[in-house]
Amino acid sequence: MNALQTRGLGKRYRRRWALSECDLEVPAGHVVGLVGPNGAGKSTLLNLAAGLIRPTAGTIEVLGGEPASGAQQLAKVGFVAQDTPTYAGFTVAEHLRLGARLNPGWDQALAEARIAELGLDPAQKAGQLSGGQRAQLALCLGVAKRPELLILDEPVASLDPLARRDFLQGLMSSVVEHELSVVLSSHLVSDVERVCDYLIVMVGSRIRVAGEIEDLLATHHRLVGPRREASRLPGDQEVIGQSHTDRQSTLIVRTDQPILDPAWTVSKLTLEDLVLAYLDANRRSAPTRPALEVQR
Predict the structure, then answer these.
(1) Where does the ABC transporter domain lie (predicted)?
(2) pTM of the full predicted structure?
(3) For 293, which DSSP code?
């Protein structure tokens, strides 16, 4: 079963398409990193998957069903929106009680154990928690729902590096223990590299590349050699990015076949290299460089 499947999916707000021509199949069982600049359509895709908005065009299925189509489908999906929303006036314990009332599959024992592990005071109000603690509380609520798919929309964007690390460690513990599928939207390539095994890159409201990270890294290469126009490469080598000097060419190519031309020095890409290659490929049609952060 696919965790997420779309066909011709699009969402328009007045004259602007926030998401367009989205064809995607993400098998269940993966931790998916969804990356791209602001305005690429990441949050729109996740809101469609959570059933918070309806598509303008095309179709979307989550775990084999239409998003938010009924109680059974709603129970399959956990969603943590941007800024890890919690209710400032509610205590930690009141958040857990609310979760129990709203979710028929709620696991109170799991929620309480997680809160104790995090060292959170059940009597403390969410408004008095640090940003990292609120993020952990939101993750606890999402996991205690016992979903099959957990959707996280930039949950750590505003956290400091230590809080981000703790959040991601908590996420991975939950993935292993509860066999969750996860879609994690992030501006931080380092976070995706740390926890994800599947990558989706979005630019300009469209999917630019998607696949298992191991496979993507194995099929993308950097070629450096004497100056040569990309049009002269074999047909099985898709050029993602290129730069040239008077005497030298540097190309980023995607191919399943070995590169046998001895004129090229061939090297592997890092995940950062791969993501930036697809973002750079879109620069010619954008007024400024996409704002994606690469942090270590």
Answers:
(1) 4-229
(2) 0.89
(3) B
Q: Is there a single domain that holds both residue 183 and residue 238?
A: no
* Axis-axis angle for helices 92-102, 108-118 (nearest 10): 160
Residues 189-248: pLDDT tens digits? 988 999 999 999 999 999 999 999 999 999 999 999 999 999 899 999 999 999 999 999
If one counts the domains in the chain, the total is 2
Sign of CA dihedral 44, 181, 273, 220: negative
DSSP-derived pairing of the beta strands 31-35 and 181-185: parallel
Task: Pinpoint the alpha helices (H) of the chain.
Answer: 42-50, 71-75, 92-102, 108-118, 131-144, 161-178, 189-195, 213-219, 271-281
291, part of any domain: no
Structural domain that includes position 86: 2-212
Burial category of 192 from C-beta neighbours within 10 Å (exposed 0-12, middle 13-18, buried 19 and up): buried
